[in-house]
Fold each of these.
Amino acid sequence: YTVTPSSGANGSIAPNVVALVNSGGSQGYTATPDSGYAVNQWLLDGSLVQTGGAVYTLVNITANHTIEATFGQATLTPSVGSLTLAVNDTALDAALTGSARQITITNTGTLPAANVSVASSGFPAGTLFTSTCGGTLAPASSCMVTVTPGATATSGCPAGPAPTPGAVTVSSDDAPDSVIGVLVLGYGCVYQGGYVYS
């Protein structure tokens, strides 16, 4: 009997040639997703036989078959695209009580997001983040990133041009990176075309 393999976009299947198998025999396949993708489903003659997994073995073959591996990716969707905070510097002014803000990250894809991690770059001194994101994030599940401003504004803030925001980057093996811009503003910063003065 013949077993004809195929793969969807964003990955490959091996072996990828038609196999001739004796009646009652077996044939194994390995799916390899492209970077940033994962194995979604295995389809036998168009019907779902396995969800996920890099390997599938067809056993006790007594008819011609087709086998297909499909690929997908998780989608890490942040609750905001950018975040603007006030500095927390009550020594300079009692009104400068910048509060922590949270960003919710939700896996809106159909696959789990494996090895989720969070990193920051370009934060001003004293600004910190904490995260509940890590490990695997199942579809429709969420985690939180909390950004707490310090007493220092974003670099270049009072110099005249609009400051360049820092970033929170949420990554996974199976999803494109999500990047959230973070500005920390103090008196004299340029924001939305004007100077912050109160």
Amino acid sequence: MKKTLRVMKFGGTSVGDATCIGRVAQIVKDVSRQGSVVTVVSAMRGVTNRLIEAAGRAEAGERDSFHANFADLREQHQAALARLIQDPQRRDQIGAYLEKIFDEGKRLCEGTALLRELTPRTLDLISSLGERLSAPLVAGALVELGVRSEPVEATELIVTDSCHGGADPLMDRTRKRAEARLRPLLDQGVVPVVTGFIGATEGGTLTTLGRGGSDYSATILGAVLDADEIIIWTDVDGVLTADPRLVPDARTIPEISYREASELAYFGAKVLHPKTLHAVAEAGIPVWIRNSFAPERIGTKITPKGRSNGGGVKALTAIRDVALITVGGPGIVGVPDVVGRTFATTAE
């Protein structure tokens, strides 16, 4: 009988420090007893922001500043490593790998500082370092709990177009690569820990899927591996009826449709990346939003049709700092292509 396959993604707050990563490893271990698991991880909390800040400082030629950024990041990851991995040999191996990534990041920033130019391709390389640093830590924490695990870089799996900073997957090619790389590990009972947010062109050039793109990574892999379900672990109890920071008594919605969840994400809800559900819409794979800090809570189930609540409002969301532009005047009456030119101008 076919084993159940779950793809589980853990966000930055869920892997924020050693304690959080330990909690994540226990969740993965518990779920792995029920079937196969592919784990997708974000960078540790705040790391991507600091990497982007380091890249900006490098572009401005501020060498001391970006070196200070990398020193802080090294301290954060080494502290987590020391707490998570007790075996000295394994700790040294992971530590050496982390150092290799830090050295790569510093070289990229040195080159940027020298040229005083930060290209989209270079920014993708620098901003992707956080996921590449967190995946070995999570895999190592699983091994400490007796779970066979291996970090896997998504550049080996997710094939994308060449749009740096917001690439889209090429699903057929991704399916072939993901099956070839991950299926043998799953058949051996190994839990792959995949870097979220990252892909690569067919030629191997690293790309990113956009900020918050680890959710999208999980659903892409879930779709191409024909997963039974995808679980996005975050720091809230699911999709809520409103922003709990603004509405203290906001409640968790038990079940919601793909369309409703996509609309909420597009119009400002932070619980999902706006593209997350694109990959699974055709396959109809259920997607759960659950709280890694309270795994006993059931969360929200996102399904193709959702569940009716009798026609009432299910949730409210808002986008801050919106500007309204009105285009008018007698000079535009009868002008050909005025709508197209208006959108092109605002897009620029």
Amino acid sequence: KALALDSALPNAHYNLGIIHRERGDLDEAMACFRQAIEQAPDFAVAHLALGNALQDTGRQEEAIACLKTLVSVSPDFPQGQFNLGFALKGADQGQEAEAVLQRGLALTPDYAEAWNVVGEIQRDRAEPEMALSSFRRALELKPGLSAAHMNFATLLRDTGQLIDSEAAFSRALEANPDDAGLHNSLGLI
């Protein structure tokens, strides 16, 4: 009804896109998000929603381009920085991903998932001490973050710190007692 009364209402296009996304109609959702962006090019959450929908449909390059537009339009929107960083990491662009994630963490330093991904990038770059520090930070912020527990304990194991690794896997299981992967890894240690 809102769009019938005013077809140039970006919020209505965005909200309709959210409804389509929740119903699983990603193509229609993306069309709505694009319309919202066309009418309001600096509509940060519409860019974010479009980028997420593009990723959900496996269109990684388009998602990265969309999220890059978002961070250029709204550089102080931390979730844009984080989502772009996650997308870049997923596209094996670790160095650029880390820089983007660090910009996001400068805006919102308490996002545990971002610290975990930064640690993964550092680990992949063979910087274990930096990675362990990032994983520790993630766990300080979100003690139940299973991925950070797994990364932290596994890196301790891989660097030969077996006693510390066993303790880390045990702590991870206290926070995530139903995680089969953690049980398996502790058994291996």
Amino acid sequence: MSRKVRAVDLSWEQDTPLSTQHEDFYFSLKNGLDESNYVFLKANHLPRRFISGDLNQPFVIVETGFGTGLNFLAAWDVWSRLQEPKRPLHFISVEKYPLSKTDLKKCLDCWPQLAGLASQLIANYPDLTAGMHSVSFGVDAVTLSLLFGDVNEDLCLHEFLADCWFLDGFSPRKNPSMWTDQLFDLVASHSNDATTLSTFTAASSVRKGLERAGFEVNKLPGFGAKREMITARLKGA
């Protein structure tokens, strides 16, 4: 029997969603989409990489922290604007504390420019049961594999090789379980010399954890008021 997963409790401050579990905001209403594009798409050299390499093989993005799905929609939006030929897109994301469908819709209503894609996500959003849920979207060669579970315990049970990683849990100070040495080792074991990684944080614990796992870490200017962010690749890449 499938195990039900309890939806996270949200509160709203000036139309911005706050996780009561972690006392942290999901995004900035003012520039959340711009931040996703800067931190995750631009830093991983997307969309250029969607049209390079073996065009018959999916481009695999793996994300820690699905949240509102904003990063997924941002990647899908950029991918959808590219002309063929391009690689199919496979987006794998893990979320321990998923939003209810009602809260998901309320959050994504903040981004009317993504309304067409958001409506498809909402219509296909899986029931909140533990495990991996895979959804293919219409005529687009886009697959979302959404894992409701623990990033440290459950993601390792699935086989995949990432082309890039979006590390997007809440801040390490407020959600340290998303930034463990166990996770960094998992990231390394599911990467190759072409895999890239980016994250909004530049916390020393994250940098040192990635370096210990074999990554060469670089700091870039952060988005908005954030002074720095991190990108990384396996050493020797």
